[in-house]
Design brief:
By secondary structure, the protein is α/β, with parallel strands linked by helices. It contains 24 helices and 25 strands.
């Protein structure tokens, strides 16, 4: 066999030197760690685009793949060696070779190019072959070859179609190149047994490279990367030994007007015939000629669509990796990144009203483990079963006290900073139990550095959800969101405090778009709206307002920002919560974790819990609500409705209100008791569409 596998994990190595396939160490490591990888072809460098756009585009496409959580593996041939994971130097070297010396390599060309130590770019067919040999399942490209116009007479049919029928690689592209006979190409793919689907194209409308609608439809449409991953998982399990083709429409702003592009194609075809261009030279000739006729607009469209395809392919690869990781390693652990604090609480027992006047007030003093991130993590640990926490403590007496109060499972990934004191928070409650003042030493949280987070990147990769509180520095938030972007994991944001609630929304939009859920109180919501919109909020909201007016004004605030998120849970004190969520989540709460933007307006729902006769402590109720809501959302054994997720939050918050500590020693004796109590709360709570 001419082509051999040389990846060391589960793949054969070459018996002779030099190897025909060389896998870059980064790709070899990614394969061994089962990280998401996207293969990329190299004919855009050697034949598809002019200099310098070819190299610029190749590097930009690789960066798009990385930004979306996967590892790019550009495949090409240099001096007879098939490279998987071309370096920037190798890309430049390939681009600098004279075009006449470069071979456009399909399946038939590989033996000659390798034997004669030639160089070339790999077509869709050749890239599929090499990707499959080394274990890469997903491949992104611009468009595939197909049946040429008049192909029924000339029998000019691209080898890409035959390869799709016999090589199990999923190809993500913008359909069949517009210069080809698309209806006959789809018929040929059907004959080859290739599963063909459109992506985010309702009705299965299939794209044709430069335009979003080829005039043809395919049987299936995949709405999201998660849907595509489900299909690919079943495809892999069935072991069909044939490829999958996923057609992604070109972004609308770059799509050509169909009549004008058809006219350019007709003119280019006529010119190709006049010049006697044939065989594998036809496609690059036509693309170059069309670019000239459209004054470069088609080249810009080509660049835009390959970047978009790379983005979608990376998201699919990440989603597929998450599904297979769940199969291989059991339940995935949510990750919390945030503060761990030792709380000292003082509840005034004097009859005098509390004033900040320098007087001494008699109080009851207690200490407990606290910190929003830590509280939520402990709540999830006790309700969900397991969780990972990244937080920071000092190397001092307070750290010793705090650790004694924390479950051992939450201490696995603590950052210990000998230079800073463990965070200490003094909370003052009045006689009625309302919090009046908080004083905190928070410097230790800056020890959660980007370097510390990157050292725990595997925790991010394995998480179904990342919970981030606002005690982190902007640099740590940026790194957290970059890792969420890399591994395509949704983020639940807990704003923590009105003065720091808007912090993450000062970052770039491509990072903050991974924040899919958040739970602010009224003051935090106001700060977030002001940060996102850049406009001051004049409304003066207070939970002591009459309920109908409070709901009306809060909804106004939510409507200013709701389309940025899947779900905003605005807490309204003892009134309950006002929840603004994407409409499709009412019937499918899993949509709250979706990274794809919602297309419909949000639904606004008010939930009011049953009144408690006795309240012991209010300090951890909001954090416990988060823990219960998240537990119900993530629990696979029992699929919960949206109302049940809210009821789970109320059930957990109620137990916290009746506890001396922010997080109860035990919420419920077992999962069955939790589920039973959720149903009890569900029947007691009020629900109103606003």
């Amino acid at each position: 066999m001419l082509l051999h596998k040389c990846c060391s994990i589960g793949l054969r190595t070459m018996a002779t030197k030099p190897p025909h396939i060389v896998v870059h160490p980064e790709i070899r490591h990614a394969l061994s760690q089962r990280q998401p990888i996207v293969a990329l072809e190299s004919t855009i460098i050697t034949h598809g685009m002019p200099v310098p756009q070819n190299v610029e585009t190749a590097l930009q496409v690789e960066e798009v793949v990385r930004q979306n959580g996967a590892v790019p593996a550009t495949i090409g041939i240099i001096d007879g060696c098939i490279k998987v994971g071309l370096t920037q130097h190798e890309l430049m070297a390939l681009a600098k070779k004279p075009r006449a010396e470069l071979i456009k390599c399909s399946r038939r060309d590989l033996p000659y190019v390798v034997a004669m130590r030639q160089s070339g770019g790999t077509t869709v067919a050749a890239t599929m072959i090499v990707a499959q040999r080394v274990g890469i399942q997903i491949f992104a490209t611009g468009g595939i070859g197909g049946v040429h116009r008049d192909g029924h007479l000339t029998l000019d049919v691209s080898a890409d179609l035959v390869e799709l029928g016999r090589t199990p690689v999923a190809v993500v592209c913008s359909g069949v190149k517009s210069i080809l006979d698309i209806p006959r190409t789809l018929e040929y793919l059907e004959t080859q047994g290739v599963c063909v689907a459109s992506f985010d194209s309702p009705g299965g409308v299939f794209p044709d490279f430069y335009t979003r609608d080829s005039g043809c439809k395919v049987p299936y449409n995949l709405s999201t990367a998660a849907d595509a991953a489900k299909l690919l998982l079943a495809w892999r399990q069935l072991n069909l030994q044939s490829g999958v083709l996923i057609g992604v429409p070109i972004p609308a702003e770059f799509a050509a007007e169909k009549a004008s592009i058809d006219a350019a194609i007709e003119a280019a075809n006529a010119e190709a015939q006049a010049q006697g261009v044939s065989g594998k030279e036809v496609t690059p000739f036509l693309l170059a000629h069309i670019s000239g006729l459209t004054k470069g607009r088609s080249l810009q469209a080509n660049i835009a669509l390959i970047k978009n395809n790379a983005r979608i392919a990376a998201q699919i690869a990440c989603s597929l990796q998450q599904k297979t990781a769940g199969e291989d390693h059991g339940p995935r652990k949510p990750l919390v990144v945030g503060a761990s604090i030792l709380d000292l609480s003082f509840k005034v027992k004097d009859k005098h009203d509390l004033h900040l006047d320098g007087a001494t007030y008699k109080s009851v003093t207690k200490h407990a483990a606290g910190g929003v991130g830590r509280n939520i993590a402990e709540g999830i640990f006790k309700l969900h079963g397991d969780v990972n926490l990244i937080s920071a403590v000092g190397d001092d007496h307070f750290a010793h006290m705090l650790r004694q109060l924390m479950p051992a499972a939450l201490q696995r990934h603590l950052v210990v900073d000998e230079r800073n004191a463990t965070s200490l928070c003094s909370v003052i409650f009045d006689r009625s139990g309302d919090c009046r003042l908080i004083l905190g030493d928070m410097d230790i949280h800056d020890s959660i550095t980007p370097e510390a987070l990157l050292a725990h990147s595997e925790l991010f990769r394995q998480a179904p959800l990342i919970v981030m509180d606002s005690n982190l520095s902007e640099q740590a938030m940026s790194c957290t969101l970059q890792l969420a972007q890399r591994f395509q994991v949704p983020v639940f944001f807990e704003p923590t405090d009105m003065f720091i609630a808007g912090k993450p929304f000062k970052l770039k939009n491509e990072l903050t778009q991974h924040i899919r859920l958040l739970k602010p109180n009224l003051h935090e919501l106001k700060a977030i709206v002001e940060t996102i919109t850049g406009q001051p909020v004049e409304l003066q909201l207070d939970t002591k307002m009459e309920r109908s007016e409070l709901l009306k004004q809060t909804k106004k605030l939510l409507k200013q920002i709701d389309m940025h998120f899947n779900c905003i849970i605005a807490t309204l004190g003892n009134h309950g919560v006002l929840l603004s969520c994407r409409s499709d989540a009412e019937t499918d709460p899993a949509k709250l974790l979706s990274l794809s933007p919602a297309r419909e307006e949000h639904t606004t729902l008010f939930y009011a819990p049953a009144k408690l006769q006795r309240i012991v402590n209010v300090s951890g109720a909001g954090d416990s609500f988060c823990a219960g809501f998240i537990t119900a959302l993530l629990r696979k054994q029992t699929e919960h409705t949206l109302d049940e997720c809210v009821a789970a939050g109320f059930a957990s918050a109620e137990r916290a209100l009746l506890s001396e500590s922010a997080v109860p020693r035990t919420y419920f004796k077992d999962a069955q008791t939790f589920e039973s109590y959720v149903q009890e709360i569900l029947h007691k709570m009020q629900r109103q569409r606003i």
